[in-house]
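Annotated sample (chain length 338).
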Amino acid sequence: MSGDGAGGGAISRRIKNLLRSPSIKLRGRGRATRHQLGDKVTLEKVLGITAPGNRALSCDPKSGLLAYPAGCVVVLLHPRKNKQRHIFNASRKTITTLAFSPDGKHVVTGESGHMPAVRVWEVPSGVQVASLQEHKYGVACVAFSPNMKYIVSVGYQHDMLVHVWNWKKGVVVAANKVSSKVTAVSFSHDSSYFVTAGNRHVKFWYLDHSRTSKVSAAVPLLGRSGLLGELKNNFFCDVACGRGPQASSTFCISTSGLLVQLDQRRMLHKWVELRRVDSARASQATCLCVTEELIFCGCSDGAVRAFSPHTLHFLCTLPRPHFLGADIATMTDARQEG
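Output written by the structure step:
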């Protein structure tokens, strides 16, 4: 009995000494310590970008602010001041697509992962003001309507869903399925329809505003394919509805370098090959931007080519940015910059 008592006392002393150990105390305070560190650490600058394509780059034409994703963070870059602000996605899901609202006050984002959400953020404060969750696997494209009433979101190919949201009310007003891989979306100037583009896919989707405003449940979206004729087997990487005098036209661009114009009847009107306008540089097209007077086509060789939206005539190739460290004062030819 005496031996058992001595052994028990030794064990008790060892337990007491172990509990007094600094490492045990730190483990108990670990969560509080991490919380304190989180309050002190702030994101100062993001290096790099995780945009899967042009659908994850957006520019506010009024302020010049550029938005792009870096993981679960939206970077808001002021190019002239070279300053960043950041919006943090609390779900920590990777942001795959984003777009500014027409007034520049909001940014809409789409994300990937299980049950991804379409989120709307205030640009000045970075506060989330809406969250819309109907997709299953990932969101490929998002866009605001010009009247600011709707947001359209297109899911990944296996998601097969296109939704039109009344984002202020947080409800789906129209929906349908799409079986093709979609890489771009663009609204018409009057918000009456939008166009999606992708793999062997250019489709017009029409909104019935009288039905979407009155019916409580989502109504079926009316979709009509573009009549592309011999060009139907192309992969269309970007699309833009016309502006001004060309508002009834739709322009799209293929990865093979075809700039295509569709008329108000969705029929192929004109098309031009980018490589033929500048034989010295055959390039793959990547993106498209349309104004009332110009069409800009971005290409994989770093060149930006300008065309007329009225005739599709080639106008010029913009000079590329100069190399880092180059003395632009000594340059006499625009070709020296690239």
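Annotation: The helical segments are 2-19, 22-28, 30-40, 209-214, 274-277.
Annotation: The mean pLDDT is 86.
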